[in-house]
From TrEMBL:
It catalyses: pyruvate + ATP + H2O = phosphoenolpyruvate + AMP + phosphate + 2 H(+). This is Phosphoenolpyruvate synthase. Its cofactor is Mg(2+). GO terms for molecular function: ATP binding; metal ion binding; pyruvate, water dikinase activity. It comes from the Bacteria. Its EC number is 2.7.9.2.
Length: 970
């Protein structure tokens, strides 16, 4: 009995330990937040003295001087502490109670700092948020201690040059929130106050939109008139809020004295050319009244600060200059609204100036600005521009807006997504940060230019009647009809339908077939999702955050959606479709695009593990899939750039499928065959397609689950271990490897199948490799894989998986090269996209993308992926965090890519399938600047979409030799 009780006790404590290790569910977090809002102490437990010797004393018993003194503040409730430990959520942070090392030097990408900023924002828009009642909990937070902590924090961080270079945007933004000088974030307070009023009193909504979208000094009069007109209808609380808003607006619109800022710089001791010139520039601006001149001068100063901040020696002085930078940006934002271009020359100048200021405020990295500067620079003596050059300027300007918004999302997106799971208001934080930056005026100016170009070139989007249509741009041509689904939140949580059109913040990494896509963050041009969409003729376009919000009004409606090869976009109610558009959706036109994959030449008798050197392009679809076959071909042509490898051919899979399937009275292959025979009978009997598909998917899931448990034959395992040691140079369990699914139904000339089946990263342990083989064999029978195949192939059931096993290369960065220009550029150009670490660019990361020509290269988009993975020798993956101050690829890398592309174009068409003349999709990476090739396949585009008579008919015809005077009034 004693033994039994002891055992029970052990089990009970084990249960408590496991329970304690679990994350607290979001439903409980939501309950905590509601409780904190109602609690006079909010997230805090009680007030205590915290002494420097580590002791804690009661409020009336302060820390004596002989032990070093201390500070007084609140302690946290136990559940707040638990949230920090279990969920890494930090609510109601008291800075004076936080170690700087924990606040900044954590292992979670400065998450505590970002959560602090997010908490401050939520408090401003939700009446204190979790501090709703605790705002009046006296002594919980001591303002002077928070200020002192903030000064100490910045002096410590700003003493490290590399931190300023790597985290310039984050550190600048944090100055608006972390107390250190008594200043407040007036712009955010103004927006928050107007938001709260409009939510309580709807007639104020138009005024709120004006204050948020285009703040000007005359808004003060607008609000004052509104107050006078509606005063009798407002509650005492709303009257108080309106008066507070007016005071905040006066403070916000009060002009900054450049002379006063210059005087503050005088506090910096020592000789420094930068500060001397800076003071002179401020004094010169103090005498200027012209808005254009002032805005240009402020933009120059912002960029000068960024470029020279590390030339200032003392951290205290760096903090002073960075604070000035915030004040100058605020003034620039206000004065830019006063700069009202009347002709095209002035509009282009304003766009250039605000783009330059984007770099100065940290929204662009300096190397990114250098890459786009020439594209946006129009010389003062230029009289006319061609329409082509004007559209090129527009693309560059739109890129600056997109890159800037992507920087905000890259820095804060993880925390915002996490908080939005339990506090939906968190999502508006990103929008608030963008609106409080130069992006507000820049986006407005770029939109104005887009409208002008659309009018002159006839390249006009017709997306219902939403505003800012110039921000919409087509990526992949095609057309679709279906229910519109606007997804403002996490796309990974959405179960998609193949007959619906989706508007996403970003494309989900594991997208199943859909009718059409629009995304705010397009990921990159060569991700698996983008390639599949391109392959199947799924219309795909990029749009702005504002466009997404405007389309929410159409959520759930039936729409027609088309993207032309020229890049213009049409979306309208399905009831407004013309007869020609309705005819596009006949059954006949849809079936014409499907193809049959030949299976008569598949060799299932090859039951031996092969070396990669034993296969080549001729074996594709016969012995193995095209990944292994084409990589074997590459190994022959580029032996130094391709690793050794093993191939498990179709025959070994087919041999194992002859085993008896447990509980079914037939072998695995017979179960698969019977499933499709039954489906065929159901169709002939008139059963609805949805029911047939449901039956197939249900049986395929049973099959996939069974394959994951299939017994590997002793002969196969023995041969695999022998070949593994002989070819890969070590016993199984000592060499980490990739396992790549390689079916006969991917990488075809007509269908890419990119990313549909399983790839296992950096597997080391023997048992995991063996289980991985079974998992890879099962992956073609997943719902996503089968649905994509079914969308394009007439015989999706005849799938044969082989497996490619290659040793891991822990590359510094990796990506994709397409041997042609995509969307822009020529057939002879290259499109390349790279991300840091392994698996780059293919999974939809916000990758560094270039158009590479014979004589140079153009940055199409910078990297904005905040994290990446590396491949340790111990197996598995290790997560790292990225900063963006340096480009991923260096000029030598781009030259290596250009050279290997030339060799591929020269060598590949003369080998294997010599009849293929198109472009190639190549996966590659760099380790210590050495280029490694991992995969090559045909680059597949949907020619039907590009040549569709209808799409061409609605594509605008480019005006021939059109030039426009820069003095044209707009």
């Amino acid at each position: 009995m004693k033994y039994y009780n002891t055992l029970l006790s052990c089990l009970f404590f084990l249960f408590l330990f496991q329970l304690g290790a679990q994350e607290i569910p979001n439903s409980t977090v939501e309950k905590y937040i509601e409780d904190y809002k109602k609690d006079p102490r909010g997230p805090y437990l009680r007030i205590r003295w915290f002494c420097n010797d580590g002791s804690i004393r009661e409020p009336r018993d302060p820390c004596p001087d002989n032990i070093g003194g201390g500070i007084q503040h609140a302690s946290y409730k136990p559940d707040v502490v638990a949230l920090g430990k279990k969920n890494k959520l930090y609510f109601g942070q008291i800075l004076a109670a936080t170690e700087i090392e924990d606040f900044w030097y954590d292992d979670d990408n400065q998450s505590r700092l970002k959560q602090y900023q997010l908490g401050r924002y939520l408090a401003s828009v939700d009446d204190g948020w979790i501090l709703r009642k605790a705002q009046y909990y006296r002594g919980a937070v001591q303002a002077e201690d928070e200020q002192a902590w903030g000064i100490n924090f910045y002096q410590k961080i700003f003493s490290v040059d590399s931190l300023l270079r790597q985290h310039y945007y984050l550190l600048r933004q944090s100055l608006r929130d972390v107390p250190h000088s008594g200043d407040t974030n007036v712009a955010q307070e103004m927006r928050s106050q107007s938001k709260v009023i409009s939510e309580e009193y709807t007639p104020f909504m138009d005024a709120r939109i004006k204050i948020h979208g285009k703040p000007e000094p005359k808004d003060i009069g607008m609000v004052r008139n509104f107050l006078e007109k509606h005063q009798s209808k407002l509650s005492p609380e709303l009257l108080k809020r309106m008066k507070e808003l007016l005071e905040t607006m006066k403070e916000f619109h009060s002009p900054v004295s450049m002379a006063e800022l210059s005087r503050r710089i005088g506090d910096i001791k020592g000789d420094n050319n930068f500060t001397t010139e800076f003071k002179a520039a401020l004094m010169a601006l103090d005498r200027e009244t012209d808005a254009k001149t002032v805005v240009k001068g402020l933009a120059d100063l912002l960029c000068e600060i960024r470029e020279n901040i590390t030339s200032i020696e003392k951290p205290r002085d760096r903090l002073l200059i960075m604070d000035l930078s915030i004040e100058l940006e605020n003034e620039l934002i206000k004065r830019s609204q006063e700069w009202k271009p009347t002709d095209l020359r002035q509009l282009l100048s304003k766009i250039y100036t605000l783009s330059y200021a984007s770099m100065g405020s940290g929204l662009l990295e300096m190397h990114e600005w250098e890459s786009i500067n020439d594209l946006l620079l129009v010389q003062d003596n230029t009289e006319k521009l061609s329409m082509d050059r004007l559209q090129e300027f527009q693309r560059g300007a739109r890129s600056v807006v997109e890159w800037s918004a992507a920087m905000v999302k890259a820095v804060y997106g993880t925390e915002v997504d996490r908080y939005a799971e339990f506090e939906p208001m968190a999502r508006t934080f990103l929008d608030d940060r963008i609106r409080s930056s130069v992006s507000l005026g820049l986006g407005e100016s770029v939109s104005r230019l887009g409208d002008y170009i659309s009018e002159k070139s006839s390249l006009e989007n017709k997306v219902f009647s939403i505003a800012d249509q110039g921000a919409v741009r087509g990526l992949n041509p095609g057309y679709a009809k279906g229910t519109l689904v606007v997804v403002a939140g996490d796309p990974e949580a959405i179960e998609v339908d193949s007959d619906k059109i989706y508007v996403f913040q970003r494309p989900p990494s594991d997208l199943k077939p859909v009718a059409g896509i629009m995304t705010v963050s397009e990921g990159n041009l060569v991700s698996h999702v983008q390639l599949l969409a391109r392959n199947l003729g799924i219309p795909n376009a990029a749009l702005s955050e504002r466009n997404l919000r405007d389309l929410m009004a159409k959520n759930g409606s039936e729409v027609f959606y088309a993207v032309t090869p020229a890049g213009n976009v049409v979306m309208k109610a399905a009831t407004s479709m013309s007869a020609e558009e309705s005819a596009l959706f006949s059954t006949k036109s849809r079936n014409n695009s499907k193809i049959t994959v030949p299976t008569e030449n598949i060799n299932t008798t090859a039951e031996r593990v092969l070396s990669l050197r034993e296969v080549d392009a001729e074996d594709s679809g016969k012995l193995c899939g095209p990944k292994a076959a084409n990589l074997g071909e590459l190994k022959k042509l580029f032996p130094e750039q391709v690793v050794e490898g093993l191939v498990i051919p179709f025959g070994i899979f087919r041999q194992h499928m002859n085993q008896q399937m447990p509980g079914k009275g037939m072998c695995y292959w017979e179960f698969l065959t019977a499933t499709f025979e039954k489906a065929s009978e159901m169709r002939k009997a008139g059963v609805a397609d949805e029911q047939v598909e449901e039956y197939q998917l249900s049986n395929l899931k049973v099959l996939a689950d069974a394959i994951r448990e299939i017994n590997l034959s002793a002969e196969f395992m023995a041969e695999l271990e022998e070949q593994f040691t002989a070819i890969l140079g070590g016993k199984m369990g000592t060499v980490p490897v990739f396992l790549r699914s390689d079916t006969n139904m991917e990488d075809l000339k007509e269908f890419t199948g990119a990313g549909l089946n399983l790839t296992l990263f950096n597997i080391l342990e023997r048992e995991k490799i063996l289980q991985g083989i079974k998992n890879v064999w099962a992956s073609p029978y997943s719902e996503r894989s089968f649905k994509w195949r079914q969308s394009y192939l007439l015989n999706p059931e005849n799938v044969y998986p082989s497996i490619l096993i290659i040793p891991s290369v822990d590359v510094d960065y990796s990506g994709v090269m397409i041997t042609k220009g995509i969307n822009i550029g020529e057939e002879k150009d290259l499109t390349i996209a790279f991300s840091r670490g392994a698996g780059g660019a293919v999974d939809g990361q916000s990758a560094e993308t270039y158009l590479v020509t014979e004589n140079g290269w153009q940055l199409l988009s910078p990297a904005r992926q905040p994290d990446y993975i590396r491949l340790p020798a111990s197996g598995g993956v290790k997560k790292h965090y990225a900063t963006f101050e340096e480009p991923i690829l260096n000029p030598g890398n781009i030259e290596s890519i250009r050279n290997i592309a030339a060799e591929i174009r020269n060598k590949i068409p003369g080998s294997g399938e010599a009849d293929y003349k198109g472009a190639y999709d190549v996966e590659l990476g760099f380790k210590n600047n050495k280029l490694w090739l991992f995969q090559i396949r045909p680059f597949v585009e949907n020619t039907n979409a590009r040549t569709s008579e209808y799409l061409n008919s609605i594509s605008p015809k480019k005006p021939a030799n059109l030039t426009i005077s820069l003095d044209t009034k707009i």
